[in-house]
Specification:
mainly beta, 22-stranded antiparallel β-barrel, five-stranded mixed sheet, 663 residues, globular
Length: 663
């Protein structure tokens, strides 16, 4: 069978499965079964408040955006160990892995090797994206253990009117557990094959008698990795990379809160060996790696109760990202970089005016140290260090305006200024019509901007890449219409149609003067897409989520962009099983074909994952068994222009056993 017909058949089968399962969910039995205490009803899911959309609590129906919430029970049911595994189950989201980093694609856009610069990642509202690369980590580089996550809020679309930099395609806000939530000491152990991975975590959480809420945790990962056969393309080299795919990760989390005050400290140190000889290094030479260390801290004040007419929120924050790459070009080459930032944010929220809820905010960030370097121990005279500190500041205003009992508007504007591109404005407009007690319609418009980061603008080694101080920033305009409809108390349907246009996309090109690689701006993109999803919950504890996303992204010449699957399908099913208190989590993900930089197609694929867990065999003990890529599907992801390879094979089947003990 030809590759084309095979892909067409796969599309048809996945769509058939998705539509059939959704149809079954509509007619599914509500007969009572054994009660599962971890099940969450649809009413509770819809009642979950989100804070990542406007930086204060809102009902999901009041948010001027498409919002998805992943709960701690979802994470436990499906056994997700990294942020990308959880996000990959959402509509219009696809991920890419190059054996170094995980990349997040949203609504058809996900350039290989872009470091997630166009999605903002936060922990309890504190920005994780660093000041050198603008990178939003979602894989093992994300500095927080998933066992400590209370919920993940994904606000799709432009969030520049509230957040400014990076929030072009969405905001991922990770909300952590509290000491009162944990209320115990926890010990977790995991082992995974064939990666030879071992994980350990020790945590303690408690709310003390004096009102102090404390959560402290340390985590560690050691993985041997697998041996991979790799073709290094133009180098003419191919072979097996033995013992070159290992990884080590260390994480620390501390949270203290009392009354209106809270303090967070997050630290993660990830070391990933490189079997691919990224940045066109010498193939199959051991010892090449990339290491990322994040340290984030913030002090928050949440003044006033939710029912108070005037509330004051403030925070002080600081962060550091320390990176080093170790490469081989017949001689050892290091590329260390370090960025330090600090800042403050103040917010006033006033709801004393009967039909309005007003927010005024000011945010200042001082990127006081951004240093990039190239060091060659054999030739210290050729060492290069690039200093490019900077700053940015923003003022934002938002009004939630109730025009009528069933009609609300959200009007927002943020004005940002930075040392690189000057002043930019990011407006936001949302109209929300509660058409009936069970139907909500939203019409949304937003614009977001991103200034080029220090790596894109300033990095220059004179050998492979030169800087571009004149680099312009990017902008995106998005229009969206969406509808939520509750068919019954147990079934929610959602549909969304959108289009977006991006101007001055920053991509790697060639400097005409030197002939070397250089980041340049000016390319335009346009996209349109459709998202359909369903969420069914049964009274006996089962839950089914499914979605189909169709998307098309093309450049100004009409060409389809790289790494953009036109079709995505997702199914997630969790349920209690009538044996030993088992709970099942099963997921199916289909990704359509993706174009590579060389113009090839990787082909569509479907991957299934399974997770079984029980907490009833022994008091305080929870056991789990996870199988990723259950049917050992072979598939590839497009590579970036810094890789020898045009596409990279992904992991086959793996098995993980886990134990968590509370005492």
């Amino acid at each position: 069978m030809s590759g084309l017909s095979c892909r067409h058949g796969m599309h048809t089968r996945v769509l058939a499965v998705a539509l059939t399962t959704m149809a079954l969910s509509c007619a599914g039995s509500r007969a009572a079964a054994s009660t599962d205490l971890t099940a969450v009803g649809l009413e509770e899911l819809l009642a979950l408040k989100v804070v990542g959309a406007s930086k204060y609590e809102q009902r999901q129906s009041d948010v001027a955006a498409a919002v998805s919430v992943i709960t701690r029970e979802d994470i436990r049911s499906f056994g997700w160990r990294t942020l990308d595994e959880a996000l990959a189950t959402l509509p219009s989201v696809h991920t890419t892995y190059d054996r170094q980093y995980k990349y997040l694609g949203t609504r058809g856009f996900g350039l290989p090797g872009d470091f997630n610069t166009r999605v903002l990642v936060t922990i309890n509202g504190n920005r994780v994206n660093d000041s050198t690369f603008d990178a939003g980590p979602i894989g093992r580089q994300f500095p927080l253990d998933m066992d400590l996550v209370e919920r993940i809020e994904f606000i799709s679309g432009p969030g520049g009117a509230v957040y400014g930099q990076n929030a072009m395609f969405g905001v991922v806000n990770v909300v952590t557990r509290t000491g009162m939530d944990m209320d115990a000491a926890e010990l977790a152990l995991r082992a995974q094959r064939p990666q030879g991975a071992r994980e350990r975590r020790v945590s303690f959480g408690k709310r003390l008698d004096d009102g102090l809420d404390l959560l402290a945790s340390v985590s560690a990962l050691n993985a041997r990795g697998q041996d991979h056969f790799l073709d290094f393309g133009a180098s003419g080299v191919s072979g097996v990379a033995h013992g070159m795919d290992g990884e080590r990760d260390r994480e620390l989390f501390l949270r203290l809160s009392r009354g209106a005050w809270s303090v967070d400290l997050v630290s993660g140190n990830d070391h990933k060996d490189d079997p691919t000889a990224v940045y066109l290094g010498v193939p199959l030479v051991p010892g090449q790696f990339q290491r990322n260390r994040y340290t984030l801290a913030q002090l928050q004040y949440q003044g006033g109760r939710p029912e108070d007419a005037l509330q004051l929120h403030g925070r002080l924050f600081a962060g550091q990202q320390n990176y080093v790459g170790h490469f081989n070009y017949d001689t050892t080459l290091y590329t260390p970089s370090i960025s330090d930032w600090r800042g403050a944010e103040w917010q006033l929220i006033y709801s004393g005016w009967e039909t309005h809820r007003l927010m005024l905010g000011v945010e200042i960030q001082d990127n006081w140290r951004i240093d990039q370097a190239i060091t060659a121990p054999a030739k210290p005279a050729d060492d290069v260090t690039i200093h490019s500190p900077g700053w940015r500041a923003g003022v934002y205003l938002q009004d939630e305006w109730r025009l009528a009992d069933a009609l609300r508007a959200t009007l927002g504007l943020r004005v940002d200024r930075n040392n690189a591109t000057g002043t930019q404005a990011s407006p936001r407009l949302g109209l929300i019509w509660q058409a009936s007690a069970v139907t909500t319609l939203k019409a949304l418009y937003g614009r977001a901007h991103r200034a080029p980061n220090a790596f894109e603008r300033d990095y220059s080694d004179g050998v492979a890449q030169v800087g571009n101080p004149a680099l312009r920033g990017e902008s995106i305009d998005t229009l969206e219409i969406m509808a939520d409809h509750r068919v019954s108390n147990d079934l929610l349907l959602r549909g969304s149609a959108y289009q977006w246009r991006m101007a001055d996309l920053v991509i790697l090109g060639l400097d005409p003067a030197s002939g070397l690689a250089q980041y340049q701006s000016g390319k335009r993109l346009q996209a349109k897409g459709l998202e359909l999803s369903a969420d069914q919950v049964w009274s006996w504890g089962g839950r089914l989520r499914g979605s189909v996303s169709m998307q098309e992204v093309r450049d100004a010449g009409g060409a389809r962009i790289v790494n953009s699957p036109p079709l995505l399908g997702k199914l997630n099913f969790s349920a209690p099983l009538p044996l030993a208190g088992l709970r099942l989590g099963w997921e199916l993900q289909f990704d359509g074909s993706r174009r590579t930089l060389a113009g090839h197609e990787t082909g569509g694929y479907a991957v299934s994952n399974l997770h079984l867990s029980t907490a009833r065999l022994f008091p305080g003990l929870e056991l789990g068994l996870a199988m990723r890529n259950l049917f050992d599907k072979r598939y590839e992801h497009p590579a970036a222009d810094i890789n020898w390879q045009d596409s990279l094979a992904q992991d086959g089947r793996s098995l993980r056993v886990e134990a968590r003990y509370r005492f």
